[in-house]
Design a protein that fits this description.
The structure holds two protein chains of two kinds. By secondary structure, chain A is mainly alpha-helical. Chain A has helices spanning 3-36, 53-60, 62-96, 100-111, 118-129, 134-141, 156-181, 184-192, 197-225, 229-235, 242-250, 256-283, and strands spanning 40-42, 45-47. In chain A, strands 1-2 form a two-stranded antiparallel ribbon. The two termini of chain A are 45 Å apart. In chain B, the strands form four sheets. Chain B has a six-stranded mixed sheet, sandwiched between helices. A five-stranded antiparallel sheet of chain B has the order 13-12-11-14-20, with no helix packed on it. In chain B, strands 15-19-16-17-18 form a five-stranded antiparallel sheet, with no helix packed on it. Chain B is 23% helix and 36% strand. Classes of the chains: A mainly alpha, B alpha+beta.
Chain lengths: 289, 369
């Protein structure tokens, strides 16, 4: 065998498994989905076709784009709330905790819930926010309320609370990493040049940690876009998300073509967000070496 | 001249009872170039960081231009630091980096630009104003860091091992440049380094530190020729160490017995009595090879055998066995090529001549190096 041939065979052997995996479990399903999105629904199932009617429905029927807008709204709110919690927390961990050991313990404490079943964590909020839940019991016991209220559960508020809780680790991780990467001398240099702590934060620490914030926001927004469990458990009638609708198209409603079209729309949205964040990150790309 | 910096009895203790700086007092005159020299962990950087305001002393006081600044945060001190890793802001270009302090302090835009341009001109980087730090070489980053610190017209410029990341050639060039800059600007420089050559080249005064204390403070040649402790003799330059016993002590001159040889020294202030155990140090280049029949004058003469000849280019080092296997280094400046210089090869017998003024003597108890 010639040297170059042998090298080709070796590299083919190395690449083939992941390549096949990607083809069979990602590319082919996407193509199937893409094809289905042009099919026509014909009771009781659907027939092959090449029509844009499913996409048209999404645009024309307010039911669908309203859900899309609502999903986007919830996703952005979740990302914003997660930043509000994760940034100060990460900042505290990185800059205020002097003991390395304590810092890693606290960091793990934030990350560890990721190992607990997602379903369980979402379900927990049902017992906290519910009519007979911990929050209501407390408010009644402390005399704030005469009787339990149901305003906490089955609405967008409970969705945002639950999803924020679940996704906060995905925000903490990149922000923590970004903050940890900032050399202390950079912050000292700012102070050395006569700049006080608040403006040092705004002009040095915050800009240098932005890549972490962008990465975290991308995670949380994309994950929220694809979530239907929280909507199902704590969302209630007006908490339906795009993923909820898609799921019902493939289930109860049995309209696979529309479900496929919605999936493709969602995929495009998520890919747009990812490439946007990638571009943002690249624009602010900084070498911290 | 006035003292621009006064450090009074400053101690810095870290948790776990680690004392980084131990009751240190130090005054720096206005316009002086002072170097804190010592191995890592000797407290030199901690001292500098306390002057900058990054660390608070556990006890003691620091005065800047007569004002007590001990508890003032760094952004309220008129000193600026050049950091070891330069600490340039990667999200700003060079002129933004240099103008950063002025901008945030609220200086008018029209005033910032000339100030930044002047600072960049001082370090010769006018053409890099719009470049980001990531695209500069180490030496250029170094200059930007300098310009950024100088643009604020500090009363004292603090330099924390700023040359340690540069390669040897560039480091030497920067040493000269820093020295010129210091002469040109007249600002007080406090320089921290573990590189004794750097300290000798640049400084008006070198302060040698060990275990958070000052061991010796003096001009570079003072330290080199008259070290007060073996530690200093060892840290700055190379030294031969001779252990021996005082056999006679007259006014200004002692004779010590080292093995089978006797060595004279003029030890200065310290008084010795016959029988004292001492350590003598001699610089390798202060020793001469005696030609046959040459008059020794008041020099001590030690016979020996050449064991090794190490060629260094401009000089060569002879490792001479002076008996009982003790090796004694002699540096010989080469005025001709090595093979025509008449340097004795390995195995040759030589006589070493040592000027008593060039022999430093220390009580043996101090030899804790």
């Amino acid at each position: 065998m010639k040297e170059s041939t042998r090298r080709n065979v070796t590299s083919f052997a190395i690449v083939s498994t992941p390549f096949l995996w990607t083809m069979i479990f990602l590319f082919v399903p996407y193509m199937v989905m893409f094809t289905y999105s042009f099919y026509l629904k014909k009771f009781p199932t659907f027939i092959p076709a090449f029509e844009f009617v499913n996409y048209l429905t999404i645009i024309v029927d307010p039911q669908y784009y309203q859900v899309l807008v609502r999903t986007a709204k919830i996703a952005i709110t979740v990302a914003a709330s997660a930043v509000m919690i994760a940034y100060p927390l990460s900042y505290f961990l990185v800059f205020k905790i002097k003991s390395n050991q304590l810092r890693s313990i606290l960091y793990m404490a934030v990350i560890v819930p990721l190992w607990v079943s997602y379903l369980l964590r979402a379900y927990t909020w049902k017992t906290i926010l519910g009519n007979e839940g911990i929050l209501n019991s407390f408010l009644v016991w402390s005399g704030f309320l005469d009787q339990p209220t149901d305003i906490f559960l089955y609405n967008q508020f409970s969705m945002v609370v639950t999803l924020t809780y679940i996704f906060v680790p995905f925000m903490v991780m990149p922000i923590y990493m970004a903050l940890e990467k900032i050399p202390r001398s950079m912050i000292e240099a700012s102070k050395d040049l006569g700049v006080g702590p608040i403006r040092t934060f705004l002009r040095v620490t915050l800009p240098l940690s932005m890549p972490g914030v962008i990465a975290g926001a991308t995670f949380t927004i994309c994950l929220t876009f694809g979530d239907f469990v929280a909507a199902f458990l704590v969302g209630g009638p007006n908490g339906a998300m795009i993923a909820t609708i898609i799921q019902s198209q493939f289930g109860a409603t049995l309209n696979w073509p529309l479900g496929a079209a919605l999936s493709i729309v969602m995929l495009v949205i998520v890919l747009t967000i990812i490439s946007l964040s990638d571009r943002l990150e690249r624009a602010g790309r900084i070498d911290l070496d | 001249m006035n003292d621009i910096i006064q450090i009074r009895n400053v101690t810095k203790t870290y948790p776990g009872n680690v004392t980084a700086v131990d009751d240190l007092s130090l005054s720096v005159r206005e316009g002086e170039f002072v170097t804190l020299l010592g191995p890592s962990g000797c407290g030199k950087t901690t001292t500098l960081r306390m002057v900058a305001g990054f660390e608070l002393p556990t006890s003691g006081q620091i005065f800047l231009a007569g004002e007590d600044v001990t508890d003032r945060p760094p952004y309220e001190r008129q000193v600026n630091t050049v950091f070891q890793d330069y600490a340039l802001f990667p999200h700003m270009n060079i002129s933004e980096n240099v103008g950063y302090g002025l901008r945030v302090a609220g200086m008018a835009k029209a005033d910032i630009k000339p100030a930044v341009d002047a600072a960049l001109a001082t370090v010769g980087l006018m053409d890099k104003a719009a470049v980001r730090p990531g695209n500069l070489s180490g030496g250029q980053k170094q200059r930007v860091a300098l310009a950024r610190a100088l643009v604020r017209k500090p009363k004292v410029l603090l330099l924390d091992e700023p040359l340690s990341a540069l390669d040897a050639k560039l480091r030497e060039a920067m040493q000269v440049e820093l020295k010129h800059l210091h002469e040109q600007l007249g600002i007080t420089f406090i320089f921290v380094t573990h590189d004794q050559k750097e300290a000798l080249v640049m400084s008006d005064r070198v302060i040698v530190m060990e275990h958070g204390r000052i061991v010796q403070s003096g001009t570079p040649s003072d330290l080199y020729d008259h070290p007060v402790k073996p530690y200093v003799a060892d840290f700055i330059g190379n030294s031969n160490k001779l252990y021996g016993k005082i056999v006679s002590a007259d006014a200004g001159q002692v004779t010590l017995q080292v093995g089978a040889n006797s060595v004279q020294s003029t030890p200065g202030q310290t008084r010795y009595a016959p029988g004292d155990e001492v350590l003598a140090t001699v610089r390798p280049e202060k020793v001469r090879l005696l030609a046959d029949g040459e008059d020794t004058g008041n020099f001590s003469v030690i016979p020996g055998t050449v064991r090794e000849v190490l060629f260094h280019g401009s000089s060569c080092r002879l490792e001479v066995d002076i008996g009982e296997g003790q090796l004694f280094d002699v540096d010989v400046q080469l005025e001709r090529a090595l093979h025509t210089s008449g340097i004795h090869g390995s195995g040759a017998s030589v006589n070493l001549a040592i000027n008593p003024d060039m022999v430093s003597v220390f009580p043996i108890a101090e030899d804790n190096v």
